[in-house]
Design goal:
about 450 residues; alpha+beta; Outer membrane efflux proteins (OEP); two-stranded antiparallel ribbon; 8 helices; transmembrane; OMP_efflux; efflux transmembrane transporter activity; signal
């Protein structure tokens, strides 16, 4: 029994650990790491990286020898008769029909072919490393796009939850006021219209709360989908830390050539150059070595082994094959010119992308700066609205302010807090866009 107790506690611990893991609040780095490891989009990009190795192996196969084997077995129940002059058989002036061949014919041979010089194969081998790098960069860009998508949805969920917390506080205060007014009404110290107003206001707040709950559910489901997580998985989120976002972060200008989008476009241009060289390879001659070895059996009986009516013999050949292109109706020239157009278009795409990325940075930096100003302003406004609400509530309790003023102050406080939440989301989205233009989205993994 003493030996079994440690094993029992170990099993119990293994059962409890997943429960604790599920109750842990989902931070943004946790969400991003989960998405990068579980998202179907990220998996497909990694499969492309794996698949390019097989594509490279296919290209390399062109530089390796090709060996093939074949075999045949033929039975001729009726041999074809061939007419020959009678002079050959001692019957001048007549025609004799003679059957040539054997009833059974079997054979097996092996063929070998080896490229000695093929410009297209050489170009393909040179392009192999560029293809590998292209898919690696593409996978990196996919990760960045996934980080941008998941981060945006994650902050939307947090902001909606912040709105829900604000509304819950408002509902709690309104319910408390409504209870007090009902008590005053029952004592004859308040009007029925005051009770009705607070009841209507409370009902509207509950309706708003249900809308926010529905919005949170939809956004959480969207977040799980983006992360590649089962939709039924329950999630909890940490509270927003306001102090961490009231200071502007690094807004240094990036080198656009170092950004993933630009690297990918330049690598595409490099692959187009290799494509052009591969087409021009059709102008070059190609040289290959070929070899053939086979055995054949002929006889009037089934060719199994050696026998008096079966003859076996082997044969072999070795050759060099030279192919020199002379004229193909200017087909190659047309394809080269098309490749040149594709390269020129890619250069235009690269120039346009450079302008676009610089524009995106300028807009993101400006938007972040403005969003921070608005955020601070809305925070001050929410703080002031809270102060006005407390003063109005105090005055109402002392009979110095009507219920209308209290409800107006309460609505103003709710609006101010919602405006602050909207400003908070706008700031976070602007921050993500700036990190995107700087090529620093992966810094969110360590936030």
């Amino acid at each position: 029994m003493k030996m079994k107790q440690p094993l029992f506690f170990i099993c119990l611990l293994l059962l409890v650990i997943p429960v604790f893991a599920q109750d842990k609040p989902l931070t943004l780095p946790d969400a991003l790491k989960y998405a990068l490891s579980a998202s179907q989009t990220a998996h497909k990009a990694k499969l492309d990286v794996e698949n390019v190795e097989h594509q490279i192996a296919e290209v390399k196969a062109g530089a390796l020898p090709t060996i093939s084997g074949s075999g045949s077995l033929t039975y001729n129940p009726l041999l074809q008769l061939t007419p020959i002059p009678g002079e050959l058989t001692g019957q001048p002036g007549t025609t004799t029909l003679v059957a040539f061949g054997q009833k059974w014919n079997s054979g097996a041979n092996v063929n070998l072919s080896q490229n000695l010089y093929n410009k297209g194969v050489i170009t393909g081998l040179r392009a192999a490393n560029s293809s590998r790098e292209f898919y690696r960069i593409n996978a990196q860009l996919t990760d960045e796009q996934l980080i941008e998508q998941v981060s945006g949805i994650y902050y939307q969920v947090l902001v909606e939850k912040h709105k829900l917390n604000v509304l819950d506080t408002t509902i709690e205060n309104t319910a408390r006021i409504s209870k007090v007014i009902k008590g005053l009404y029952e004592s004859g110290l308040a009007k029925e219209i005051d009770v009705d107003r607070t009841t209507v206001n409370l009902s509207n707040l509950y309706a708003q709360r249900q809308q926010i709950l529905n919005s949170i559910t939809l956004q959480e489901n969207q977040l799980k989908f983006a992360m590649g997580m089962e939709i039924q998985t329950p999630l909890t989120f940490p509270p927003i830390e306001f102090k961490k976002i009231l200071t502007q972060g690094d807004t240094s200008r990036p080198d656009v050539n170092s950004l993933t989008q630009m690297q990918l476009l330049r690598k595409q241009g490099e692959l187009l150059e290799f494509k052009k060289q591969s087409i021009k390879a059709e102008y070059y001659p190609s040289l290959s070595l070929s070899g053939n070895y086979g055995v054949q059996g002929l006889g009037n009986s089934f060719p199994m082994g050696k026998g008096p009516s079966v003859n076996w013999f082997d044969y072999a050949s070795i050759g060099l094959n030279l192919k020199i292109p002379i004229f193909n109706g200017f087909s190659t020239r047309s394809k080269v010119r098309q490749a040149n157009i594709e390269i020129l278009k890619m250069k235009e795409d690269i120039d346009q992308a450079s302008l676009s990325l610089n524009l995106a940075y300028e807009n993101a930096a400006t938007q972040l700066k403005n969003s921070l100003v608005v955020l601070r302003s809305q925070l001050d406004n929410a703080t002031l609205a809270q102060k006005v609400y407390r003063n109005t509530q105090s005055n109402y309790n002392l009979g110095l302010a009507p219920l209308t003023d209290l409800l107006d102050a309460e609505n103003a406080l709710t609006d101010a807090n919602n405006n602050y939440s909207s400003a908070l989301l706008a700031y976070r989205i602007a921050e993500i866009q700036l990190l995107k233009t700087q090529g620093k989205l992966k810094s969110l993994l360590n936030e």
